[in-house]
Amino acid sequence: MAPSPVMDTYARFPVELVRGRGVWVWDSAGKRYLDCVAGIAVCCLGHSDRRLKRALCRQLDTLQHVSNLYRIPEQEQLAERIVSSSCLDRVFFCNSGAEANEAAIKLARKHGHTVRGIAEPLILTANASFHGRTLAAVTATGQPKYHQGFEPMVQGFRHFPYNDIAAFESLLADCEAEGPRVAAVLLEPLQGEGGVVPGDPAFFRRLRQCCDERQILLIFDEVQIGVGRSGRLWGYERLGVEPDAITLAKGLGGGFPIGALAVKSAVDHFRPGEHASTFGGNPMACRAGLTVLAELERRQLLPHVQRMGELLQDQLAHLIARHPSLLEGSRGWGLLQGLVLRPEAPSAAAVVQACLEEGLLLVPAGAQVVRFVPPLTIKPRQLRQAVQLLERALLRLAR
């Protein structure tokens, strides 16, 4: 194969995916794969969904892009759908999760300046978190491997162990020993890239209290767990805690690029000219978002995701029982599940490679966790088939 003109920013598998339908994709050689990656939690309605295709074709016939200098009806409608179904009041649209988190970081800093009177605001995030690849978002990410080679990192971030309230309170006290310093806490309700680790409701309840006591923003990164993947529309609903803001992307567009920052009106600190996105919230992207949210409701996908999540957990439990020397456990919410490999087992990357050869697409979440993030439309027999293919891959690796 001739050298690619595309930069080597990914360690790509030697497979060209050229076509998709539902939960299936085909490569250029005609081989079919059961897709439990879905573009990493993006293609929530599956591939080539008819209603999404029709909606985008109709929108393309009408208007695909205009500047945010003008009101965009589709943007207003999508913002209203997000607001009416959540605890948030206003929405800023952009193109990706990293951009949404960048907007949240800027909002947090302005909150620190205007509300808490901080000259150099701090944002607290968790170890093993993942918030994106832009310089500020990757600094917020609590994984040093993503920082290497890009130093100096952006100032103003501190990290603490996820779900550890004692560590959080200790860090907060240290940061604020001489007065207000912390503008916001930015956390995933469930850590995805960090190993599929669900948030502890008790931790998040106490965290909410700490933030309320000091007028600190509590921001949830729902880029991966939001828009129905947990079995609830928004990830914060699994924790019983309302954030001040959430960031969204991935599944919101069903495969069309879109990101969003949704905030409560009390913390809507942006004023005209302070933040922007040329493509953010254009008619095509918002039409995709409107269609996704409408289809989640029309097809009753939230209860379906809950049922499929329970089925997947049950199937993985049986798999773990059959292979205790390789598998340690599983964890997750809805259709974001992680299979935890034992330290002495093959790596997650090796398991994913073996699954690819069996015709199953999965994705690692750290060195020893294999992640399931299939389309939300996946059926029971397809989930069972996925676990069967995974078992075949494990047996081949064990031999």
Total of helices? 11
CATH topology label of the largest domain: Aspartate Aminotransferase, domain 2
Write out the strand line-up for the largest beta sheet, numbering strands in chain order.
Answer: 4-12-11-10-7-5-6
**CATH first level of the largest domain:** Alpha Beta
Strand content: 15-25%
- How many discrete domains? 2
Q: Major beta sheet, specifics?
A: 7 strands, mixed
End-to-end Cα distance: 31 Å
What oligomeric state is this? single chain
Helix content: 25-40%
Structural class: alpha/beta
Low-pLDDT segments, ≥5 res: none
Number of strands: 17
The ordered string of helix (H) and strand (E) elements is EEEHHHEHEHEHEEEHEEEHHEEHEEEH
The whole-angstrom Rg is 21 Å
| General shape | globular
Structure, explained:
By secondary structure, the chain is of the alpha/beta class. It has 2 domains: 131 residues, Aspartate Aminotransferase, domain 1 (Alpha-Beta Complex); 248 residues, 3-Layer(aba) Sandwich (Aspartate Aminotransferase, domain 2). It contains 11 helices and 17 strands. The protein has a 7-stranded mixed sheet with strand order 4-12-11-10-7-5-6, with helices on both faces. A 4-stranded mixed sheet has the order 1-2-3-15. It is globular, with a radius of gyration of 21 Å. The two termini are 31 Å apart.
